[in-house]
Write a structure and sequence with these properties.
single chain; 87 residues; alpha+beta; two-stranded antiparallel sheet; 31% helix
Length: 87
């Protein structure tokens, strides 16, 4: 139910699962095993995405662009939300 592929780092206190995912490192695609957050429902996934973005200084600029979806997504990418440059 992790709709937004949020990884489970040391701050995550909930359930996690390990998944092989395609990551981009310096423009090169590589397979990496990473821990991802586990949710019991889609609603929980949406709620955690909102919390994740609102409570991270990393995404502060993106959160100031929520009235403009294209700019919001552009700022998420610039902040490093995903390693895939085309995400």
């Amino acid at each position: 139910n992790n709709l937004f592929n949020i990884k489970a780092d040391q701050r995550w206190q909930g359930e996690r699962t390990q998944v092989t995912a395609l990551e981009f490192e310096q423009g090169v695609a590589v397979q990496r095993r990473s821990n991802f957050r586990v949710y019991q429902s889609f609603a929980e996934s949406f709620q955690d995405l909102q919390n994740f973005l609102e409570n991270s200084s990393r995404y502060e600029k993106a959160m100031r662009q929520t009235d403009d979806p294209a700019n919001f997504l552009h700022e998420l990418q610039k902040a490093g939300y995903a390693t895939d440059p085309l995400y």
